[in-house]
Amino acid sequence: MAREDKPDLSCREIAELVTDYLEGALSKRDRLDFERHLVWCSWCRDYVEQVRTTIELTGEAELEEPEPPMRERLLEAFRDWKRTRP
Amino acid sequence: MVNSPQPILESSSSGAILWNVHPVPRRAPPPAHDAEIVEALRRGDEEVFGMLVSEYSTQLLRLAQDFVGSRSVAEEVVQDTWLALLDGIDRFESRSSLKTWLFRILVYKAKARGARESRTIPFSSFATEGQVRAVPEERFQGADKTWAGHWATPPIAVNSVPEERILAREVRDRIATALDALPEIQRIVVKLRDVAGWEAPEVCKELGLTDANQRVLLHRGRAKLRAALEQYLGEG
Q: Under DSSP, is residue A48 helix (H, G, I), strand (E, B) or coil?
């Protein structure tokens, strides 16, 4: 049923609501408006997809080997720990 | 028969509907092999410990630096964290993932060190940036247009870019650089959520943030990282 009292969300609003949407923090009505927008707007689906991809890539950022001296110190600490284990 | 690419709706645990148009793996539950890793550590398996150290130490070090400032203090915090993990390994119960627990120890140690070095992070000053939009205004059509507020320069579809470009190390480095450039408190919130894999309530509690503030910080931080991703996608 069409509602006359509130215009559809704009893409600009979608971009600002995306975190609240992903966090499950929108009211039921706002969530339905958000999803209704995504039904017809492939550009905003692309936007949401960019955000999801960003989240995944952030989890994989800084996955570098530690510098060898640091790694060696940690392994040394591990050996000490192991020696003192009952 | 035409196989039209209709979006598939699926329910997430939060009750939100997820658009499974071009799926990206969701945040993983505690990995099944956590139990095996814990068992190996209890046995004193150095190879497994070395593997964990290689995987997480850089992420831990960077986060520790966000709290304590100095690199050498951060290194000590990371070492203390690994030792605390080992000392507690017999008591570890897999209610959370090993990774989440590891980061929990790190934050505890780093905050204690930060306090000792009288370094405080202005957790409440999140509003100092003023009104910031996730996407610049000029990307949208102006008020004089029929489609005011809708995209003028639409986002680049992730699935229009060759997969190798998404898998490349370069894009992760770009995100890491953008992460470094975030205001401190945004950076910490984004890392705890999207690197450490914490849930929102834990981040709020640990940093003394309200629910709404945590979301604002996460939103602004992720928006800047997304912009870095899109720039990269556009260079293809």
A: helix
Q: Are residues A70 and B75, on separate chains, in Cβ contact within 8 Å?
A: yes
ipTM: 0.89
* Mutation target vs A (from B56, B103, B135; most A CBs, 10 A cutoff): B135
Counting every residue, how long is chain B?
A: 236
Closest CA to A59 of B28, B135, B117: B28
Q: Which of residues 129-158 of B touch A (CB under 8 A)?
A: 133-135, 137, 140, 148-151, 154-158
- What is residue B10's three-state secondary structure? strand
User: Smallest CA–CA separation between A4 and chain B, in Å?
Assistant: 18
Contacts of A21 in chain B (CB under 8 A): 16
Chosen for mutation from B17, B151, B179 (greatest number of chain A CBs closer than 10 Å) is B151
CATH architecture of the domain covering B8-116: Orthogonal Bundle (1.10)
From the options 1.10.10.10, 3.30.70.100, 3.30.565.10, 3.90.700.10, give the CATH code of B123-234: 1.10.10.10
| Six token digits for residue B20 | 């499974």
B83 touches chain A (CB under 8 A): yes
Residues B19-75: tens digit of each pLDDT: 443 334 444 445 568 889 999 999 999 999 999 999 999 999 999 999 998 899 999
pLDDT in tens, B165-203: 999 999 999 999 999 999 999 999 999 999 999 999 999
Instruction: Determine whether the interchain pair A81/B86 forms a contact, defined as Cβ–Cβ distance below 8 Å.
Output: yes
